[in-house]
Design brief:
The complex is a heterodimer. By secondary structure, chain A is an all-alpha fold. Helix content of chain A is 77%, strand content 1%. In chain A, α3 runs parallel beside α7. In chain A, 52% of the residues are buried. In chain B, strands 1-2 form a two-stranded antiparallel ribbon. In chain B, a hairpin with a 7-residue loop joins β1 and β2. The chains are: A mainly alpha, B mainly alpha. At the A-B interface, β1, α3, α4, α5 and α7 of A face α10, α11, α12, α15 and β3 of B.
Chain lengths: 416, 416
């Protein structure tokens, strides 16, 4: 491919992406308006806002440094440069300049943080600190997820490739929310540059993820679409505090799956399950939100169950976790809820745990059993007094616990 | 009759000689860089030195490294006000360490360099990755897991320490150790060329950070991040050159740090498997943490409002210091642009384009906004420092890095 052709493709791609950026911005604005119950803005609203912003005067805070006007230019140039790389990246799959793309995105992010710090005000300083922390997560997650996609695209196979797509694409897209606000005291064309940079970055990541899904899995484009839906669910459903942690876990798992190509998926599931269980035990030992830690222990056993091939046991545990978590949410962090989460009879989690541990064989089954026992002891010993159960929801909580107990009895009845 | 006039003391020999030596070293670096392309590889033997004689030899990578270290040495010589003899000795020691293919000379020079590091300041730290990679280069590829794991752990821990660094000297040391970790990881990957690029990047970045720390301590009495700020107003050229050092250490394109990061990452992606995944994980965390640390350091030191009266009163550095800083910064940019000319040209063109079309009129001065706080007293014309975010506050959302004292206390507690 000649240089001129590549430059032409890059400029055409930039124009297309800029248009898509407006479309994405419009979608976000309309969704926000619908969620807030207000009137839906006209389709050209983002364009009008941008034009209106550019017509205003630029401002300069009194304590700003001589570098103050350079930050919006640097941020916009870096992200536009990354956008220019995108068509080339998608055409030359799976080998392309991934480090340069990530480096330019990080450069844009650094310019935004420095712009927020430049005014020298308390509020914008706090904003810069938050932005910088979000940038740490975003940079690490993007790199892990995109490298996992590059490794997966080399030799696509069925199950593993699908799993990597489902893990890596939502993880990469979860970093979209970082750096969406205009930093510091910027107005006029400077502010418009920051807005444009945020739009370009958003559409760049979406296009990169969609492009990967489309190019590497053309026969199963629906998988890419489902991964995008999962990403949206992740972005809207999870609390903001948990988003980077969940996304980094997903990116790490995607990388582990992509790197361990010689290792069967089942073994990877067992390994991740054991690591998750150990993580839960460590959190229980350190008294860090015991209910969530117990959920981690049980989820680890469920993953190990899926790896062994005991799908029924795995699903039973997952359903049990959901019901027990609901019971705790309704009735408080009492002894009964903790017993249900610890996998004690007669609750449903016990049935799933029993099926998995019995089928796992001696070394793995013993390890899982010891982990479960340790988790139960750690969860129940410092149990809160029963008075913490909220009286107004006591009936609902007991109803859920009875349902959970019936779930525990079900396998016995079924297998008899 | 009392003497009223000031007597002029006779200038000492070493301060007069230092700029001359620095100039010779800078010229030597240019000659050496030129010779790297023109002169074939060579070796020489000195049989009278050491138990078995000393062998000096160049290989395909080392001359580039030496060409990078020489401007760093020149900068160190030019900026240092004390301890010139130590620096000159260190230059020779590291030169021997880089050239020698003989283990005796290597360890002799390495230990000599370590002895001199406390006095030699920034150049000593800049030479650390070079000495370490020289020591690790002869390790056979089949025994490379140890340098790989040590390098990855060092990279992540150094980045973590850089994020929480209380002062600029600590930051410069952390950056040097981080680059050493990256070089070791590259050697573990079986890619000595990437290790040399990492050592070269350290040779450009660390002296700048070290000289900046020393000069700021002289100008303001401290190099603690909690008491600095707003230096770009009083020391604009010095801050611009300091930004170059931070830029190199942040691993952002098109600086030399980015090329080191890119060389190691591309090799890790090409390798794949478990080893590649470990490197990718360490690189992603190190990349994100280094970006955070450098944004924090530059933003809190040079941007915003001063956090102490001495920071507010700081004046521009001497021409000698500015020249010392300009040497490695210019050399680093030349290195970066030579490694990625298209990306650098693209960024520059986009920057100029955006500036041409986005900047219309000069900014309006914005009156200071105290964010609801009371007006500061008249003896604090730059505002009350208590209302601004400090270095400690900026890094408070990251967990504190493990320190030797804390680990020792933890081991003692475990023993009890």
């Amino acid at each position: 491919m000649t240089v001129a052709l590549r430059i032409g493709i890059a400029i055409f791609g930039l124009a297309i992406l800029a248009m898509l950026g407006f479309v994405a911005e419009l979608a976000v604005v309309r969704l926000r308006a619908v969620a807030a119950g207000g009137p839906v803005p006209p389709p050209a609203q983002p364009w009008h806002d941008l034009v209106k912003t550019t017509r205003k005067r630029r401002v300069r805070p009194e304590f700003a440094s001589p570098l103050h006007p350079l930050w919006p230019l640097a941020a916009c140039a870096a992200t536009a440069g990354a956008t220019l790389l995108l068509p080339d990246a998608l055409l030359r799959q799976p080998v392309f300049d991934l480090p340069l793309l990530l480096g330019l995105l990080a450069l844009g992010r650094a310019a935004r943080v420095l712009a927020a710090l430049d005014a020298g005000e308390g509020a914008s300083g706090r904003h810069a600190a938050r932005e910088a922390l979000a940038g740490v997560w975003a940079d690490a997650i993007r790199l892990l997820a995109l490298v996992a996609l590059v490794l997966a695209a080399r030799a696509p196979d069925d199950l593993r490739h699908l799993a990597i797509l489902f893990l890596a694409i939502p993880a990469a897209l979860a970093t979209l929310s970082a750096g969406a606000e205009v930093p510091g005291d910027y107005a006029g064309p400077d502010r418009a540059l920051f807005v444009t940079e945020a739009m370009l970055r958003r559409v760049l990541l979406i296009a990169l993820a969609l492009g990967y899904a489309a190019i590497t899995t053309i026969p199963r484009l629906e998988a890419g679409g489902a991964a995008i839906v999962l990403a949206a669910a992740l972005a809207w459903g999870l609390p903001r505090k948990w988003r980077p942690r969940v996304a980094s876990g997903m990116a790490f798992m995607a990388l582990a799956l992509a790197a361990g190509r010689d290792v069967p998926v089942e073994s990877v599931a067992i390994g991740i399950g054991i690591v998750t269980m150990i993580l839960g035990l460590v959190r229980l030992w350190r008294r860090q939100v015991p209910v969530e830690a117990a959920v981690l222990v049980q989820a680890g056993v469920a993953l190990a169950g899926f790896g062994i091939g005991i799908d029924f046991g795995g699903w039973l545990i997952l359903v049990g976790i959901a019901l027990a978590r609901l019971a705790v949410a309704l009735g408080g962090d009492g002894v009964m809820g903790r017993a249900a989460l610890a996998g004690l009879p007669p609750f449903g989690l016990f049935a799933g745990d029993y099926l998995v541990v019995r089928s796992a064989g001696l070394p793995l089954g013993a390890a899982l059993g010891i982990g479960l026992a340790l988790g139960a002891v750690l969860l129940l010993v410092p149990a809160a007094p029963a008075s913490t159960i909220r009286r107004e929801r006591r009936f609902a909580a007991f109803a859920v616990l009875i349902l959970l107990a019936l779930l525990g009895l079900a396998p016995t009845l079924v297998f008899r | 009759m009392p003497r009223t006039g000031r007597t002029r003391s006779k200038p000492k020999l070493v301060p007069v000689l230092a700029p001359v030596l620095a100039g010779i070293l800078a010229a030597a670096s240019c000659c050496f860089a030129l010779a790297a392309w023109l002169v074939p590889l060579w070796s020489a033997r000195l049989p009278a030195l050491g138990p078995h004689g000393i062998v000096f030899a160049t290989n395909a990578g080392r001359e580039n490294l030496i060409a990078c270290l020489l401007p760093a040495a020149a900068a160190g010589l030019l900026a240092a006000r004390t301890g010139h003899a130590a620096i000159i000795g260190l230059v020779f020691a590291v030169g021997v360490a880089l050239f020698a293919a003989d283990p005796y000379a290597l360890f002799f020079a390495g230990l000599f360099a370590l002895l001199l590091i406390p006095r030699a300041g920034p150049f000593g730290w800049a030479a650390l990755p070079a000495v370490l990679s020289t020591l690790a280069l002869p390790i056979p590829p089949d025994a490379s897991l140890a340098p790989l794991l040590v390098g990855c752990a060092t990279l992540v821990l150094a980045g973590w320490h850089a994020c929480a660094a209380p002062n600029l000297a600590h930051l410069a040391r952390s950056v040097a150790i981080g680059f050493a970790g990256m070089a070791l990881a590259a050697i573990g990957l079986g890619n000595p060329a990437a290790a040399l690029v990492a050592a070269e990047a350290a040779a450009f970045a660390v002296p700048v950070l070290g000289i900046v720390a020393a000069e700021i301590e002289i100008a303001t009495g401290t190099c603690s991040l909690d008491w600095l700020g707003g230096l770009a107003r009083g020391m604009p050229r010095f801050s611009a050159l300091g930004f170059g050092g931070c830029f190199f250490a942040a691993l952002l394109p098109p600086g030399p740090g980015f090329h080191a990061f890119r060389a190691v990452l591309e090799r890790a992606i090409a390798l794949g498997g478990g080893v590649g995944a470990i490197i990718v994980l360490a690189l992603s965390v190190g990349f994100a943490l280094n970006g955070f640390a450098m944004v924090r350091a530059f933003g809190l030191t040079c941007l915003g409002r001063p956090r102490s009266l001495r920071a507010a009163a700081a004046e521009e550095a001497s021409r000698r210091t500015l020249t010392a800083l300009a040497l490695p910064v210019m050399a680093g940019f030349v290195f970066g642009i030579a490694h990625a000319p298209v990306a650098a040209a693209l960024l520059a063109a986009l920057f100029l384009l955006v500036r041409r079309f986005a900047t219309r009129a000069g900014p309006v001065e914005l009156p200071p906004f105290e964010a609801g706080f009371a007006r500061p007293p008249s003896w604090l014309p730059f505002g009350d420092p208590a209302t601004q975010i400090t270095g400690t506050g900026f890094a408070s959302s990251l967990p504190p890095p493990p320190r030797a004292a804390r680990v020792r206390a933890w081991i003692q507690a475990m023993r009890r």
